[in-house]
Amino acid sequence: MTMNTQKSKLLIYGASGYTGKIIAARAKELTLDFEIAGRDAVKTQELAKQLNVPFHVFTVDDENAWKKVLENKQVLINAAGPFKFTAQQAMNACLNAGVHYLDISAELDTYRLAESLDGKAKEAGIQLMSGAGLFVSYDALAVHLAKLVEQPQQLKIGFQHYGGFSKGSVLSSKNITDLGVLIRKDDQIIQNDNPEPKVFSFGKKQLECLPTPLGGIILTYKSTRIPNIEEYFSLKLPASDIPDLNPENLPDGPTQEERASGRNALSAEVTGIDGNVVKAWIDAPSGYDLTPLSVVAVASRILNDDFKVGYQSPGSAYGEDIIKDIPDTRLIDLIN
Ligand SMILES: NC(=O)c1ccc[n+]([C@@H]2O[C@H](COP(=O)([O-])OP(=O)(O)OC[C@H]3O[C@@H](n4cnc5c(N)ncnc54)[C@H](OP(=O)(O)O)[C@@H]3O)[C@@H](O)[C@H]2O)c1
């Protein structure tokens, strides 16, 4: 169902979800020319009315609808997760329509899918970027440190998350925890047979983090080619803790006040071939503010014709420079 024929340049699919709404609000705040879409007619129409933007209602499998709606678009933000069920269809639609693709997935299989579509993305002349949420600042930090040492050999990175988890994140995190503790070792992705916690410095605060594959083993490897990557998280992912994943029992996500009451942080160390270690950290808004700010920053770059064709990570497309586009976010070098 298409309700408006006005042309816009950005489409947000899954816009009426918890994170999609914050993304759409950010796009509105920046007065971007955008439309929204989703599978639920009532929720999508209601949001479109609030934002005063055109809207489209179609399921993710509806190839004809994608074709029609993407005809006049430059970039798609896919905010409909779990991405296990939406990324392939949305990526194919973008490849067919010649529209740049972004999503906010935290699922490693979505990154692998994007990686496998590199050739097709180049043929279509589009930038295909999965993981344009958290990984925008994460990658900027890794790229920054990798440039400070000779032949970077190892990245260890800790993520301090604030803001709890949305319903969508809980449902999606099963697609991460099921993979086990993956690391990159000597360029290969393997299981970590001996996962041990590690303490990271987030400014003055020291925090023990747990080994957790966050996706840098794919995305940051793309950005930096660092052959050894280990990732850590300040919390246990919820899917491993919650036996009953009935969506009805899960809250939509933190309130605006809850989101504003704390900060996210990333801390990383990179070791060069001579053993030299450099460290830095990032202080940023809490998770469900940071991701919308990040993905809209990338979409804005594309709308200004700043993109690289093919499968890209935030770091491979924009380097560390993109961090300047994320409000209220600072990269701070740590002195040994
Ligand atoms: N790494 C990051 O930076 C980051 C940060 C935040 C969120 N995320 C990810 O973003 C995703 C969304 O999170 P959320 O908090 O917004 O969840 P949510 O509130 O449950 O919203 C999910 C949205 O996707 C739609 N959707 C789900 N499955 C679909 C399908 N098969 N076909 C079409 N639409 C579908 C939902 O539509 P209905 O309303 O019709 O169900 C809803 O609009 C999750 O995967 C989460 O992990 C990642």
UniProtKB/TrEMBL annotation:
Pfam families: Sacchrp_dh_NADP (PF03435). SUPFAM superfamilies: NAD(P)-binding Rossmann-fold domains. Residues 11-126 form the Saccharopine dehydrogenase NADP binding domain. It comes from the Bacteria. InterPro entries: NAD(P)-bd_dom_sf, Sacchrp_dh_NADP-bd. Residues 244-263 are annotated as: Disordered. This is Uncharacterized conserved protein.
